[in-house]
UniProtKB/TrEMBL annotation:
SUPFAM superfamilies: Ribokinase-like. Catalyzes the phosphorylation of the dietary vitamin B6 vitamers pyridoxal (PL), pyridoxine (PN) and pyridoxamine (PM) to form pyridoxal 5'-phosphate (PLP), pyridoxine 5'-phosphate (PNP) and pyridoxamine 5'-phosphate (PMP), respectively. PLP is the active form of vitamin B6, and acts as a cofactor for over 140 different enzymatic reactions. One of its GO terms (molecular function) is metal ion binding. This is Pyridoxal kinase. Its main location: cytoplasm. Homodimer. The lineage of its organism: Eukaryota, Metazoa, Chordata, Craniata, Vertebrata.
């Protein structure tokens, strides 16, 4: 059965971020992806210079109306990432709510892109829109530690803090929360990165149970862009296959990320071909050969 995603994210001419990081991997995994570019830039904003256009709320509305008039606005998922305009973000919320009325089973996956490492890289007026309007309609969110702290107003200094922050985010709306990275000390040593996940599950008897996981993956001594966009897309894909098993969905997602990053490093060092990196990296590493984190001796997934 066809599964269709509306992906509203950034687009760059050079590089792989936003929709250029998310759309192709989802298509490789069998999803139909309709993309709306929230911005169209020459390159990502980490460069010294960048040029381009920002899609306005009115322009987004026109695009969506065109889809709706042709009666092709039937989606199973909405995926959103980077944007720089509050009215645009509010229009996204309106679209998500309309799509959910048409399909109550629609799942909204939101990467609340606000900043990292203690500083924001979007306008500050986006913060209250995410907190008060976007997160409450989301089903799955993928903040980093800084974004999770911003959204809840609570600092994360311990594992207990991380659990409490995820519970606060649950109370805001989403049933699935993955804190994609944190500054907490890993149990496996300094060369690892700690992430957390939490999923509320409605049981057949009407009660709710919560599954929590702690993930430790090896750090990579390199800087990448677009990894958060790829992560959110892969979490969408694997929670689709494992909707009530966050542990397995995260194993698949983190393993994909590790594999893609390693292949990218190999390509940068000239150890693999461009074709291998741009096609086989996704086809083999993502679509056909997913390694469980537990298969790596140096990796470990802890759940409680």
């Amino acid at each position: 059965m066809e599964c269709r995603v509306l992906s509203i994210q950034s687009h760059v001419v050079r590089g792989y971020v936003g929709n250029k990081s998310a759309s192709f991997p989802l298509q490789v995994l069998g999803f139909e992806v309709d993309s709306i570019n929230s911005v169209q830039f020459s390159n990502h904003t980490g460069y010294s210079h960048w040029k381009g256009q920002v899609l306005t709320a009115d322009e987004l509305h026109v695009l969506y109306e065109g889809i709706k008039l042709n009666n092709v606005n039937h989606y199973d998922y909405v995926l959103t990432g980077y944007t720089r305009d509050t009215s645009f973000l509010e229009m996204v919320v309106d679209i998500v709510q309309e799509l959910k009325r048409a399909n109550p089973n629609l799942v909204y996956v939101c990467d609340p892109v606000l900043g990292d490492h203690g500083s924001m890289y979007v306008p500050q007026n986006l913060h209250p829109v995410y907190k008060n309007k976007v997160v409450p309609v989301a089903d799955i969110i993928t903040p980093n530690q800084f974004e999770a702290e911003l959204l809840t107003g609570k600092n994360i200094s311990t594992e207990k803090d991380a659990v409490e922050v995820m519970d606060l985010l649950h109370k805001m709306g989403p049933d699935t929360v993955v804190i994609t990275s944190s500054d907490l000390p890993p149990r496996l040593g300094d060369r690892f990165l700690v992430s957390f996940g939490s999923q509320r599950i409605l049981m057949p008897d009407g009660t709710r149970t919560t599954q929590r996981i702690r993930i430790e993956v090896p750090k990579v001594d390199a800087v990448f862009v677009g990894t958060g966009d790829l992560f959110a897309a892969m979490l969408l894909a694997w929670t689709h296959h494992y909707p009530t098993d966050l542990k397995t969905a995260c194993e698949k997602t983190f393993s994909v990320m590790h594999h893609v990053i390693q292949r990218t490093i190999s390509y940068a060092h000239g150890k693999t071909t461009a074709k291998s990196c741009l096609f086989d990296m996704y086809m083999h590493g993502v679509g056909l050969n997913i390694f469980s984190i537990r298969r790596y001796q140096q990796q470990k997934l802890i759940y409680y």
